[in-house]
Amino acid sequence: MPPLSSAPTFAHKLGIVPHVSRLLHKARRLGLNGLKKLQTLAVQRGCIHYTCGDEPAGELVSKKAFSNEELAIALLSTANPFDPHSQRCGAAMLSDEGNDVTTLARLAAEERCVAVVRHIARSALRYEPDETYWTRLLDALPPSGPVRAEALLHPTRYLSLMGYLRGLGIGKYFQWQRPRVRSPAAYV
User: Fold this and answer.
1) CA atoms within 13 A on the CB side of 59
2) Radius of gyration for the chain, computed over Cα atoms and rounded to the nearest angstrom
3) How far apart are CA 113 and CA 137, in angstroms?
4) What is the pTM of this model?
């Protein structure tokens, strides 16, 4: 089934066969129709680095109805139109500390984005080599076939580069983007 949009899907850019996504159908049933709504929900759940400043107050959908694991993989689904911003938001949601690696691996296989998740986890390990979460995620993922590397973002696109850190001074400091807890007052 071809996408409704004329934009190429992420699957096409990766050189794999597109599919019909059950996860994106679930998102649509919950009112999360389109990448913009998924990205807005990611910002509402703490990916404030990717805010556009026009996100509504309160979450669009509760975590109980649509988990952070589902949100991360929905943003990275190969059934979506190709969108680098969604890859960045998905990578940040992928790194949420409460995520279950087994659930992520299962969803990634269902959404045909194992190679994408594997690329993000390997990228994260370059900058966070002591973070065992990424190794556990890589171990949980099934094997994946080859994809076109040019459709995947450079590892630095998932980071913030800072020139100063308190206590460390001036230098080049990289910080992996992950969701931060926001107070309800931050939405108004």
Assistant:
1) 17
2) 16
3) 13
4) 0.85
Which CA distances in Å does 27 have to 10, 22, 48, 68?
Answer: 18, 9, 21, 12
- Report whether 70 contacts 26 (CB < 8 A): yes
Token pair of 134 as six digits:
């990424």
Which tokens sit at 113? 């984005």
In contact, 178 and 96? CB cutoff 8 Å: yes
Q: Digits of tens for pLDDT over the chain (188 positions)?
A: 444 556 789 999 999 998 999 999 999 999 999 999 999 999 999 877 777 777 777 889 999 999 999 999 999 999 999 999 999 999 999 999 899 999 999 999 999 999 999 999 999 999 888 999 999 999 999 999 899 999 998 887 887 666 555 666 666 656 667 777 654 444 33
> Cα(24)–Cα(35) distance, rounded to whole angstroms?
10
Residue with tokens 């992420």: 10
Per the CB < 8 A criterion, the answer to whether 137 and 105 are in contact is yes
The number of CA neighbours under 13 Å toward the Cβ of 132 is 0
